[in-house]
Specification:
By secondary structure, this protein is an alpha/beta fold. The protein has 19 helices and eight strands. The chain has helices at 6-19, 48-70, 127-137, 156-170, 181-193, 197-202, 222-237, 258-264, 277-289, 297-306, 311-328, 334-340, 351-362, 366-370, 376-392, 397-403, 409-425, 427-442, 462-465, and strands at residues 32-37, 40-45, 75-80, 146-150, 176-180, 209-213, 241-246, 268-272. The strands form two sheets. A five-stranded parallel β-sheet has the order 5-6-7-4-8, with helices on both faces. Strand 1 and strand 2 (40-45) form a beta hairpin. The longest helix is centred in the first third of the chain and has 23 residues, at 48-70.
């Protein structure tokens, strides 16, 4: 099948930009044309969120542009590109980055336009790593090396590429190289096979900043590890900065020599943790703001409370909801979201987390909530705790009763039923329970001062539950 030529593809993109500026995004330059046959043109996107945006918002603009450029009616199919080349900065005017040679194993490509500091949602889960990355990019941090680690999908590549973007924009005199560890290893081994190690090493001479992504992929690659160790020493010896990302901290790297892990741990080691509720919601708000998906606020809140895991997991959940809505011809709604995420992984909640939120919300001590005392002022918060424990944990009635002061299962059943009746009869009480549920899902790292007391200093929820029986 014939592929679209460069000239035709460039004309098509220019036509989209001119005719639909409101739809156009900077990352359109990263799209790749596929074959054109039988009146069908395939266009490939690199990112799932880009694919969702194209299907939802950009199809009419591309169809119209294709018709104008080719002079005939065309049908478009957007697909996710497979086995796309690794990302790496291209040469910039006035800078000192040369285009990589094909023989050294590096493939020239572009940084993802969305991977900037401005596009990153910052919260307790990534604040340290973000601050350190900004400092390095601005030339103010003495962290060398800067080692950022976290599980897949937590935003390591986003942070590393954001450093490169910031350096390009604000410090064009500094030379920076971004390279995935796989490409580093490939380039070194290829140069070794052709007796061109000196040429490979010269690529790192004079660099101000080396950014190496996914270091853990060098596991058990002894020769590549040895070469990186020498590059790291050479960079540090002349004042160059090295930034590294991995799935695990230096001490947990397997198949790496101790001297390399020790050197990597000698700088700043910054973790990327799973985002809390507020951070998850901020990530989803950003995705909607960038128009990847149109989702109302209640759907964003539902996804933030329902989906455990990384920022990538959240975006994928939002895309699943959008895909289901698109396939059924319905608008994105809470009902569609519940159907789409029926099997999504739930967050794990412990009884101690529930207890901590309850005591803070009502201004009580932990021993008051789980103790033997039975005053009316404690009955309401205690029953709410039992209700939340019953609906948010896998503990049995007996286990819940034992936790809340050694009470039997019939007491727990009574408390759960009492709270359920109050939820049905009072919108204010229902909102209180939902507020507590979200605070529990957020976890202790995201506790807000607003959850403990109002501006007057008195527990805000006490009047709502004082009448519980």
């Amino acid at each position: 099948m014939p592929a679209v030529g460069y000239g035709l593809w460039t004309s098509l993109l220019d036509c989209v930009r001119e005719s639909a500026p409101g739809v156009t995004r900077s990352w359109f330059s990263q799209l790749s044309p596929g074959e054109m046959s039988g009146g069908i043109l395939r266009i490939y996107a690199r990112q799932p969120e880009h694919l969702a945006y194209l299907m939802r918002h950009a199809r009419p603009a591309f169809v119209d542009a294709a018709r104008r450029v080719t002079g005939r009616l065309m049908t478009l199919e957007f697909e996710l590109a497979r086995n796309t080349p690794e990302l790496m900065p291209q040469p910039r005017a006035g800078g000192r980055i040369d285009p990589p040679d094909e023989d050294d194993g590096f493939s020239p490509s572009v940084l993802t336009p969305d991977y900037t500091f401005e596009a990153l949602s910052v919260g307790p889960h990534n604040r340290l790593a973000h601050a350190a990355a900004v400092a390095v990019a601005d030339g103010k941090g003495a962290y060398n090396p800067l080692y950022i680690y976290g599980a897949p999908g937590m935003g390591k590549t986003h942070l590393l590429q954001a450093i490169c973007w910031r350096v390009r924009q604000k410090s064009p005199e500094r030379s920076v190289l971004y390279v995935p560890a796989d490409r580093f290893s490939m380039g070194f081994l290829r140069s070794s096979d052709h007796f061109r190690q000196d040429e490979f090493r010269r690529r790192f001479c004079g660099l101000s900043l080396l950014v190496l992504d996914d270091l853990h992929r060098l596991e058990d690659r002894e020769r590549s590890q040895e070469e990186f160790f020498h590059v790291l020493n050479e960079m540090r010896g002349r004042g160059g900065i090295v930034v590294v990302s991995s799935d695990v901290p230096p001490s947990n790297l397997k198949g790496f020599p101790e001297r390399l892990t020790s050197r990597l741990g000698s700088g700043l080691v910054a973790p990327l943790d799973a985002p809390c509720y507020e951070a998850r919601l901020a990530i989803l708000v950003r995705a909607v703001t960038l128009k990847y998906v149109d989702a109302p606020r209640e759907v964003q809140e539902f996804v933030a409370a329902r989906v455990a895991g990384s920022p990538r997991d959240l975006i994928e959940a939002l895309l699943r909801i959008d895909a289901l809505a698109h396939s059924t011809g319905a608008a994105v709604s809470l009902l569609i979201a519940r159907q789409a995420l029926g099997d999504a992984p739930r967050l794990s909640v412990g009884l101690t987390v529930i207890l901590d939120v309850i005591r803070r919300r009502f201004g009580l001590r932990a021993e008051d909530v789980v103790g033997p005392r039975r005053p009316r002022s404690l009955a309401g918060p205690r029953q709410i705790g039992m209700y939340l424990a019953r609906h948010m944990t896998r503990h049995s009635l007996q286990e819940i009763g034992a936790f809340f002061g050694g009470r039997d299962h019939t007491t727990v059943i009574h408390g759960v039923r009492t709270v359920a009746r109050r939820i049905e009869g009072s919108e204010e009480f229902r909102n209180l329970i939902e507020e507590l549920r979200l605070a529990i899902l957020a976890g202790p790292s995201c506790e807000s001062a607003d959850m403990t007391e109002d501006k007057s200093g008195s527990p805000p929820a006490r009047k709502v539950v004082a009448g519980s029986r």
